[in-house]
Every structure is written in C-alpha cells, then in structure tokens.
C-alpha cells in the first residue's frame, strides 16, 4: 500500500452519529490514524440499520460501517477522564459533537487539553454552534432543514413543504468539518497554536442554499419578485420503466426539448411556462404522454446527444448497475457483523497518494488493548513559523482558478478566504457562465457583474485570457510555472482540448497540484455528458429518497455544488500535505456525481443488505413520531416529537393535555402507527396560531420546532446574526451586498469568512501580466486590441428571459 496523504496525522474521535464520524473517516481514508472512542454501550449508530434492532448477532448497522471504516476502535468509560486526556495529548486532532459546553462538562476543557498539547485542533460540531441565543435549543434534522430553507414545496404539483431525504445534511456537515480541520492543521503548523473549529449544522445547511439574500436583491433591482425553488423545467419525469431527470438550463436546451417531444409551439414560451398556470399543466401533460412509452435510458441518450442535461433518477438497486458507476468501479464491499454490504467509495481520486480501504469499521472495543499497549508519544509544542499569520493559514499559495459556476468557483473562494492568492481566469469569448445566472441587461451595460457569480468568486483576483489562441495559452503556461494549484471543472474533454491535460501541466510544473472536478469523471461512457447540480442529485440517488411517499422523487435543488467544492478543498489540502513531505505534485479528480453519491449511501447500503429499495418517507422519521410540517395561520412550522416527554409537553403547549392519555397515543410505537391521525389533529391545532407564537411556545417547552423559513427570513435569524454568518462586502459595479459565510469559526484563525469582495472581469490584468509577468504596456495594449484580454465579454446577445432563473 502507498503512504496516504495524511499519514502521520493522529485523530481522536469522541463523536456519535453520522456527521462528525464521517469527517473523521475522510481523514482516515487519506491516511490519518483515527481512534474512535466509545463508551461501553457503543455508538447508537451501531444499532441502526435493517438488521441491527432485532438480531443480537447483528450489532453493527451498515451506516455505522460506512462512516467508521478505516478507524481503530476503543472503549473508554466517560468517567475515565485522565485516560482520555492522555490519549489526546498524543493527538493532532480531537473530533467531538457533545453540543455546546459538552466537552467541558466531561472534564475535557480545551484549555486544559492544550496545556499538554498546545497545537491540538479541536473540531466541535453542534446544531447551532457553541454560542448564541439558540445554541442550546433542541433540534432535529427536520427542524434544522426547515430553519435553513431546505424544506420546500418542490415541483409543480407539490402542496406541502417537504424535507430532503436521508442524512444528506449530516454528510455535508461532515465535509465542511473536515475542511475546517485541515485548515486548522495548517494554522497550527504556521503558528504552533491549536484552534477550536466550531462548526454549526444550521450554518452548514445555509451554506448550501443558492444565495437567496443576494439573489432576491438582484431580482428586486430587475423589478421581479423573489426567486422560487419550485419552478424547474422539466425536472423529474416518469418513463415506462422508471424515472428520468430532464434539467433544462439554457434557452437552446429548452428549444431542443420542445422539438424532441413534439411540442414546438412552446419553444418560445419558456419564461411564461416557468411561472405556472394552465398552459404549464398542458405542456407537462404533453411531455408525460411522450415519455410514457419511452425507456429512461433511451431518453437520456436522446437528450445527451442534443447536449440537454438528462440523467436516470437512480435508486439503490439501479445505481450499482448503471454503466458509468460500473466501469469506474465506484461501489465497494465492506464487512460488518451484519455481513458484507455494498457502499460508495471515495469522493476523490489522488494519483500520488490515493485513498485506501485499510480496515472495516471496528468491532466495539476491538483495538482497546492495542492502542493503550502502544500509546502515541505526546506531541511536543511546535514553534511554528516566525510571524505566522493565523488569519491567513494558506498564505503563500498561488492558485490558478479556471473553475466555473458554483462548484468550481466556491472551491477557489475558500482557498482565497484562507489567504491563498487565487487568480480567477476567464476569457472574454466564453466567460464563466455563472455570470449570466440571475442577471440580465435591464441592470445596465455591465449586467454581467451583478448575478450569483459574485457569491462564489470572493477573495480572488480576476484575469482574462483567451485560451483558444496561442498567445493566451503561452501566458497561462508562464503562470503555471510558478503556481501551486490549478483548479478546473469543465467537461472532461475541454481542458485537454486546450492543451492543458495533466501530462502537459506536470511537464510545466512537476510540483503542481491539479484539481479536476468533472461532472461525470475523467473516464467512462458518460465522460462527455453534460450536467449540473440538479442532474447530479438525481443520478446519485438523492432525489429518489426525497419527497412524499405517494409522490414522485424530488430534487433538493443543487446542494451537490457546494458539497463538491468542499471535497475539492479537502483533497487539495491533503495533496499539499503529501507534497510538503516530498511527494511532489499530483492529479486530483473530484467526480461530481461520485461526491454526491458519498453523501447518499443509505439506498445502496439498504438494498445490498435487504434486497429492498429504500423508499421516500416525506417528513417522517424512525426516531420521532409525530414529526412533520404543519400549517400555521401565516405559514408553516416543522416539529418533532422524540419521546414521551416531548409528547406531553406538546399537548400542554397546544392546549390539549388530554392527548397524552388517549388510547393509541401513549407510546412512541403507538404514535408511529397513528401518525396519519396525529397529523390531522396537529394541523387542525397549529392552523389556529401564527408561526411566531407556535415556535416560541413549543421551543420554550423543549420541543424541536422551527419556522419553514425562506430567504427573506435569514437576515432576521437571531442565531445567524449573533454568529455574524452574513458579511457585507463591496463590489465595484453592484455595490454593497450581504454574502453567506463559512459554517466554521476558528478560535485561532481568520476572524471573518471573507477577505475581499468579488473583482470585476479582468480587473487585475495589468497587475498580473504587467507587474508579475513583466509585459510592457504596449504588449498589454496589443493583447487587449486582439481580445486576448479585456474587461467586457464579447457578443453579449442574451436577454432578460434567457439569463435569469437558471438554477
């Protein structure tokens, strides 16, 4: 086996469930030595799964096996504080999710831990963060999703808001936590000081939403109402043998779809139909009639031949048989005490220090004797780098960012936020397409600077180069020679066509870390397919498990983009660690559909263990009953009843104390059976009151509850305000706006999420080409006259109707 990128890094995991253990597993996959510490009862996740609850011989559920692979496991009673402190004294990282102050309650105060180990990174994951007015509020996955805007009425026939299925938020949060950990490791190396990485699940959810505050502000300038997530054309559709996702993005794609289904008369009515109404219903019926006799695979082939982003909507059975996943050998088998099961592999591929499966998830206490027989030596204090700046842990790194749209842009934005010099490279002929998303000519001659592009290109400098011409390619080569990282997420063929495939880049700079983030991977039968976030959620299994039980699969709405971006950061920082140890540069591939599948493992695990297809459950949960989204007089609320104490409190708060004693409602099992009836009773009661009253009275009684929020609510969220999640930044053309931050806070590190606003197109051409490459003024003028560089895209012919509402 080759040495992992993070070999030598030591991690103690004091965490249960999915999110924090998944973060630790990502580190283990890349070579870190992760020791999972459990109490004698074990992580409750061991007992969750298709076999675990009833069969004493099958103690480890498949999801536990997935998030705890590649770790060593020990049992230490929580009262044995000194034993845990001694273990942590030899670690680089401690991962915990006890909740605000939970580590301190257990006698593991961070200050005391750092007396023994000054460089210790403590990764702390909680629902709302370690501080703030709502830090100690109870919450569930449903109520967190509701407060962050994830719970929504998706699709043209949806009536009630529905949450995103599975443990999607947990896997996203685990990825953000891993990013924060590796960033803090850089800070510790630079300064000799360890940092708390305070990560909020609520903020992780907010960080994946498509910039509603910024978007609504732009739409208001255009004289339009707030953006709605429910008007995607066409979305998930039934075929003769299953479901297909047809994800129209551009005006040309819309025109081609209309021709394909024999509805040419609608080809010029895209915006009109997006608004809904009788004509929308008639059009959808025409499409459904055409699809009724079609196989999903044939529809995908037809659409992709026309460059329309269409994919099969996979479930846990079909995904493992699909050609792309099969050829890339993405799914792998693992052993647990429940037997072998199938699960997704790694979200990235590193050519020089690949991730590896070294061991299955540990049996309870399997490595206790081994770990304490050969303990880690205590870490010695590190002097750090003289004058190391904790606010810029990645200072000194040079990044060439050819990324586009959300996933590519956000990866570079994070590296820039942490101090790297990130140069965003576009051409005038084909600028980043995200510039035209949620924008339009009614904003003025520089309308291409106003849209969502600004949200993911903060913390960068801007350079324009026409890479289709030799002069532009020559300049990029000069920049590559002194850069550390090259980022791109074009379709697989594009960068190679331009002459900058990995072999060429390595020849120019052997120490380069080249990060490629193609939608479908660098090889396989779908290599050249087109797609975007919605398609990636459909093909990776997330859509199939989201939505009401009696309805069609629902697409969450592009949350894969920021997930891919953060996996890009994890892989980049790991590759840099490998290079620091003398390993040189390498190619990193982050396949977007595979990153999506790693965040939705349950369908594959479930099918491989039971032979059954995991179905949609709407807003319900195995751990709470009743749970759901209920109408209020002025909106919707989400609430969860976790146990009898919650049930009693709910009845009293709503003025129905008699509910608890009613036959059929007394136990959690009874309430699960009577869930439909309870939903009716609750809806009848909640509809009499306003949202503010319900959320206040129920939360005061200890019940997890939240308003089903929208973009207009976010700036009034007291917890987000306390944690300064939104930051005001300036833009030369668009002015000041509020931007989403990162969901991590560092006790030693950057005090703000962002260092600078988004630059205008080509703003730094002279600074970079003249000041750094040494081009003379006459050369710069000639480059501008020939369109190699410049500040205004060429051939802007787009209208309002073809540029807005693209996601």
TrEMBL record:
This is CoA transferase. It holds the Pfam family CoA_transf_3. The keyword Transferase applies. InterPro entries: CoA-transferase_III_domain, CoA-Trfase_fam_III, CoA-Trfase_III_dom3_sf, CoA-Trfase_III_dom_1_sf. Keywords: Transferase. One of its GO terms (molecular function) is transferase activity. Gene3D superfamilies: Crotonobetainyl-coa:carnitine coa-transferase, domain 1 (3.40.50.10540), formyl-coa transferase, domain 3 (3.30.1540.10). Its EC number is 2.8.3.-. PANTHER family: SUCCINATE--HYDROXYMETHYLGLUTARATE COA-TRANSFERASE. The lineage of its organism: Bacteria, Bacillati, Actinomycetota, Actinomycetes, Mycobacteriales. SUPFAM superfamilies: CoA-transferase family III (CaiB/BaiF). It comes from Rhodococcus artemisiae.
């Amino acid at each position: 086996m080759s040495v992992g990128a993070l070999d030598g890094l030591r991690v103690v995991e004091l965490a249960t469930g999915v999110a924090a253990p998944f973060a630790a597993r990502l580190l283990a996959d890349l070579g870190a030595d992760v020791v999972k510490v459990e109490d004698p009862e074990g992580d409750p996740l061991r007992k969750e799964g298709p076999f675990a609850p009833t069969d004493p011989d099958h103690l480890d559920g498949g999801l536990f096996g997935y998030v705890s692979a590649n770790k060593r496991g020990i049992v230490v009673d929580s009262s044995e504080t000194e034993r845990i402190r001694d273990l942590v004294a030899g670690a680089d990282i401690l991962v915990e999710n006890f909740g605000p102050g939970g580590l301190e309650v257990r006698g593991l105060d961070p200050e005391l831990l750092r007396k023994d180990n000054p460089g210790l990174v403590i990764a702390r994951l909680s629902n709302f963060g370690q501080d703030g007015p709502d830090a100690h509020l109870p919450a569930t996955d449903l109520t967190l999703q509701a407060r962050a805007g994830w719970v929504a009425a998706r699709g043209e026939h949806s009536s009630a808001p529905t949450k995103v299925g599975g443990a999607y938020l947990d896997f996203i949060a685990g990825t953000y936590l891993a990013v924060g950990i590796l960033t803090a490791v850089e800070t510790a190396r630079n300064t000799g000081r360890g940092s708390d990485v305070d990560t909020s699940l609520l903020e992780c959810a907010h960080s994946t939403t498509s910039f509603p505050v910024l978007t609504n502000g732009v739409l208001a300038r255009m004289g339009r109402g707030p953006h709605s997530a429910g008007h995607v054309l066409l979305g998930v559709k039934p075929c003769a043998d299953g479901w297909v996702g047809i994800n129209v993005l551009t005006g040309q794609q819309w025109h081609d779809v209309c021709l394909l289904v024999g509805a040419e008369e609608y080809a010029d009515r895209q915006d009109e139909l997006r608004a809904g109404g009788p004509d929308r219903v008639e059009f959808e019926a025409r499409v459904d009639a055409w699809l009724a006799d079609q196989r999903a695979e044939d529809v995908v082939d037809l659409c992709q031949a026309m460059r329309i982003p269409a994919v099969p909507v996979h479930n846990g059975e079909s995904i493992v048989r699909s050609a792309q996943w099969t050829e890339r050998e993405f799914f792998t088998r693992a052993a647990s005490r429940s037997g072998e099961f199938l699960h997704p592999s790694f979200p990235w591929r590193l050519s020089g220090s690949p991730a590896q499966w070294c061991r299955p998830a540990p049996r309870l206490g399997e490595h206790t004797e081994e770990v304490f027989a050969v303990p880690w030596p205590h870490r010695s204090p590190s002097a750090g780098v003289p004058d190391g700046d904790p606010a810029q842990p990645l200072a000194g790194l040079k990044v060439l960012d050819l990324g586009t749209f959300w996933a590519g842009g956000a990866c570079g934005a994070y590296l820039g936020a942490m101090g790297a010099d990130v140069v965003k490279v576009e051409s005038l002929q084909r600028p980043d397409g995200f510039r035209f998303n949620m924008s339009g000519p009614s904003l003025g001659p520089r309308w291409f600077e106003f849209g969502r592009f600004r949200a993911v290109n903060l913390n960068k400098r801007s350079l324009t180069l026409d890479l289709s011409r030799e002069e532009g390619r020559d300049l990029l080569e000069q920049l590559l020679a002194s850069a550390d990282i090259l980022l791109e997420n074009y379709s697989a063929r594009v960068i190679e066509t331009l002459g900058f495939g990995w072999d060429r880049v390595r020849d120019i700079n052997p120490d380069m870390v080249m990060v490629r983030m193609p939608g479908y991977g660098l090889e396989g039968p779908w290599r050249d397919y087109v797609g975007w976030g919605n398609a990636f959620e459909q093909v990776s299994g997330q859509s199939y498990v989201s939505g009401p039980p009696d309805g069609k699969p629902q697409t969450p709405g592009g949350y894969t983009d920021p997930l891919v971006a953060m996996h890009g950061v994890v892989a980049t920082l790991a590759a840099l660690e490998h290079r620091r140890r003398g390993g040189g540069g390498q190619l990193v591939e982050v396949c977007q559909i595979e990153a999506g599948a790693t965040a939705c493992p349950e369908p594959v695990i479930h099918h491989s263990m039971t032979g059954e297809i995991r179905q949609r459950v709407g807003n319900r949960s195995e751990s709470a009953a009743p749970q759901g989204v209920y109408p209020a007089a002025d909106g919707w609320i989400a609430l969860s009843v976790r146990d009898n104490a919650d049930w009693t409190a709910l009845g009293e708060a709503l003025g129905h104390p008699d509910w608890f004693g009613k036959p059929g409602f007394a136990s959690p099992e009874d309430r699960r059976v009577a869930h439909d009836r309870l939903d009716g009773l609750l809806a009848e009661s909640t509809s009499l009151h306003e949202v503010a009253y319900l959320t206040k009275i129920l939360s005061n009684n200890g019940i997890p509850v939240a308003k089903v929020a929208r973009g207009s609510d976010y700036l009034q969220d007291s917890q987000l305000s306390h944690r300064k999640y939104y930051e005001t930044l300036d833009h030369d053309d668009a002015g000041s706006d509020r931007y989403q931050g990162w969901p991590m806070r560092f006790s030693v590190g950057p005090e703000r999420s962002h260092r600078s606003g988004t630059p205008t197109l080509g703003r730094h051409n002279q600074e970079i080409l003249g000041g750094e490459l040494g081009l003379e003024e006459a050369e710069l003028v000639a480059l501008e006259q020939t369109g190699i560089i410049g500040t205004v895209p060429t051939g802007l012919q787009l209208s309002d109707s073809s540029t807005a509402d693209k996601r």
